[in-house]
Design brief:
Strand content: under 5%
Number of domains: 1
Largest sheet: none
Mean pLDDT: 94
Low-confidence stretches: none
Distance between the termini: 64 Å
Shape: elongated
């Protein structure tokens, strides 16, 4: 494993993190590692949008007029 150092963390932020870690029964190191792991486990908004774009490229083009006609027929 590698070490990560974060400088210039405001004291209030450090106190809040320490309190949250303690409330979870964790050291601050364990707490922050868990936060980092959760962060990288979820895709970012940009990554999600790229996945949507890639899927959209494989789909047939949408015929809006046909889709609206079908929706109107379903209402009848």
């Amino acid at each position: 494993m590698v070490a990560i150092t974060i400088r210039d963390v405001p004291e209030q932020t450090r106190r809040t993190l320490a309190a949250r870690a303690a409330s979870q029964g964790q050291s601050m190191q364990e707490y922050l590692r868990t936060l980092l792991d959760r962060t990288v486990a979820s895709p970012t908004q940009d990554e999600i949008l790229e996945q949507i774009r890639q899927r959209a490229r494989t789909m047939p083009p949408l015929d809006l007029d046909r889709t609206l006609d079908e929706a109107r027929q379903d209402r009848r």
